[in-house]
């Protein structure tokens, strides 16, 4: 396994590769969800590149915020996990390497898809995500790239970016990995106390009630808002492809998405309906 920190070294390392290349983009602080992406990539490709980069563009105020400053950075432990999972190359640049002239002038804009749901609460977030992913696609030139379904809006935005910009990469979606208690795996879970984690289960329980019992959507919002220790950001049911709201109960495939704040930690989850 190679740990690479510069774009030039990455390009050199990939120049002679003739087989299929996979990319698994991450921000580090790895968990079982990330490893499921690596396992899927390893099974389908000749070479697997995992990136570790905490991207300031997708945080509030271009990273001038506590959320960015406090985001867990565990490169040494992450590298050991990725090596044991069979990753061939880890690309772990610093901010100056990715943005040598500071904040870029040219961005990928994600329009209405990126302005709703998570984007309404985190303006500019998906523009930052799409911009850094486009840079990674340009550097690695992967045949396939792997994204978790937990970040369902991100997955939809990336798929649309690939379609609209005619990017030659196959986007692979990997199912959500959950803990034994049902909480979706997330790097942010490490910020939860035992009480916070128990309170956070209200989100997955509400999504399951929507999927399995088709409870009233307004009732679901009210119950989630009233759950102990939970502040509701949003709970919506949308088209999986366009992210546009659908009527409830839905007559076709739909996606229920929610975001809550528990303690000081913001969590997202979703389930197919």
Describe the structure.
- The chain is 39% helix and 19% strand.
- With 273 residues, it is of the alpha/beta class.
- It has two domains: 173 residues, Rossmann fold; 84 residues, Pantoate--beta-alanine Ligase, Chain: A,domain 2 (2-Layer Sandwich), CATH 3.30.1300.
- Strand 8 and strand 9 form a beta hairpin.
- It is globular.
- The mean pLDDT is 97.
Helix content: 25-40%
- Quaternary structure type: single chain
Alpha-beta content class: alpha/beta
**CATH-defined architecture of the largest domain:** 3-Layer(aba) Sandwich
Query: Largest sheet, described in full?
Result: 6 strands, parallel
Rounded radius of gyration (Å): 19 Å
Q: Got a strand count?
A: 9
Strand order of the largest sheet: 1-4-3-2-5-6
> Which of globular, elongated, flat, extended, rod-shaped describes the shape?
globular
Question: CATH homologous superfamily name of the largest domain?
Answer: HUPs
| Percent range for β-strand residues | 15-25%
CATH topology of the largest domain: Rossmann fold
Number of helices: 11
CATH class of the largest domain: Alpha Beta
Enumerate the spans where pLDDT stays under 50 for 5 or more consecutive residues: none
> How do the SSEs run, as a string of H and E?
EHEHEHHEHHHHEHEHHEEE
Ends distance: 40 Å
| Domains (count) | 2
- Arithmetic mean pLDDT: 97
Main location: cytoplasm
GO molecular function, one term: ATP binding
Function: Catalyzes the condensation of pantoate with beta-alanine in an ATP-dependent reaction via a pantoyl-adenylate intermediate.
Keywords: ATP-binding, Cytoplasm, Ligase, Nucleotide-binding, Pantothenate biosynthesis
């Amino acid at each position: 396994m190679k740990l690479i920190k510069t774009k030039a070294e990455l390009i050199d390392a990939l120049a002679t590769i003739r087989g299929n290349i996979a990319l698994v983009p991450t921000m580090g602080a790895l968990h079982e969800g990330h490893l499921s992406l690596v396992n899927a990539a390893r099974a389908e490709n000749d070479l697997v590149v995992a990136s570790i980069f905490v991207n300031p563009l997708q945080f509030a105020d271009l990273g001038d915020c506590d959320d960015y400053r406090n985001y867990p950075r565990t490169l040494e432990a992450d590298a050991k996990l990725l090596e044991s999972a069979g990753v061939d190359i880890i690309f772990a640049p610093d901010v100056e390497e990715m943005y040598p002239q500071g904040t870029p002038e040219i961005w990928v804009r994600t329009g209405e898809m990126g302005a709703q749901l998570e984007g309404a609460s985190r303006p500019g977030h998906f523009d930052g995500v799409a911009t850094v992913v486009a840079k990674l696609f340009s550097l690695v030139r992967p045949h396939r790239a792997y994204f978790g379904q937990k970040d369902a809006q991100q997955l939809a935005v990336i798929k649309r970016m690939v379609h609209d910009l005619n990017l030659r990469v196959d986007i692979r979606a990997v199912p959500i990995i959950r803990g034994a208690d049902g909480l979706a795996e997330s790097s942010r879970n490490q910020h939860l106390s035992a009480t916070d984690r128990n309170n956070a289960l209200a989100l997955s329980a509400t999504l399951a009630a929507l999927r399995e019992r088709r409870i009233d959507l307004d009732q679901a919002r009210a119950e989630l808002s009233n759950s102990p220790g939970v502040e509701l950001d949003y709970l919506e049911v949308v088209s999986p492809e366009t992210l546009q709201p659908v009527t409830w109960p839905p007559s076709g495939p739909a996606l229920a998405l929610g975001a809550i704040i528990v303690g000081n930690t913001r969590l997202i989850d979703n389930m197919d309906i």
